[in-house]
Amino acid sequence: MMKKRLSESVEIMLTADPNIQIMTDNMISEWGGTSYPEISVALVHLKYLAALHQNHHWTAIGDPYYGDHLLFERLYGETVGEIDTVAEKAIGLGSTHNVDLHLQYHQLLKLIVGHGSGSTMPQASELARKSLIAEMNFLLVMKHLCDCLKDCGTMTHGLDNMLAGIEDKHEGHVYLLKQRISNPLV
After folding, report:
1. Angle at the Cα of 52 from the Cα atoms of 158 and 12, rounded to 5 degrees
2. Residue 62, Ramachandran bin (φ over 0: left; ψ between -120 and 50: alpha; else beta)
3. Of 126, 128, 112, 124, nearest to 175 (Cα)?
4. What average pLDDT does the segment 55-74 reach?
5. Above 60 in pLDDT, residue 2?
6. What is the pLDDT of residue 7?
7. CA 124 distance to own-chain centroid
8. Using CA atoms, how far apart are residues 137 and 141, in angstroms rounded to an integer?
9. Topology of 36-181 in CATH?
10. Helix, strand, coil % over all residues of the chain, rounded to 5
11. Of 22, 25, 36, 83, which residue has the fewest beta carbons closer than 10 angstroms?
12. Distance from C-alpha of 25 to C-alpha of 66, rounded to nearest angstrom
């Protein structure tokens, strides 16, 4: 069991963006005077995931079209539900500054540009691979954010519970995307 966990951790670390922790720290610092900048950064990343999965839902083509269309719809739908929960928690623990629209979209644009896209329409399996990498990056970001909250002594039981539930859901997304990528027909 320990070897399996270790191999999954290594896989995530190898697949994920090597600069994700630096990028996350920079995003946290941009939130400056907000009470819970870590929650604001989680919110931005959730918005990115929702937008990415929704775009893949719209652009899925080819043989597994309908299955991919439904998979990406499920992923973005579940993520959109988490956005409101995180935003309300950010305001409840901090203030409305924790959901500053201008800064959110400034950081969201950095994520979009940083993860780029090709000049041609990607194949169906490429959409799933991009979503998988984004989900793995998100899990690393969440671990880092939770570590920061614990180190600062600002992690509450409710916040910990909410973030753990979100991580659990996205681990499920990783499972679904791995299943999709391992499909030999595509």
Report:
1. 65
2. left
3. 128
4. 90
5. no
6. 47
7. 20
8. 6
9. Ferritin (1.20.1260)
10. 80, 0, 20
11. 22
12. 38
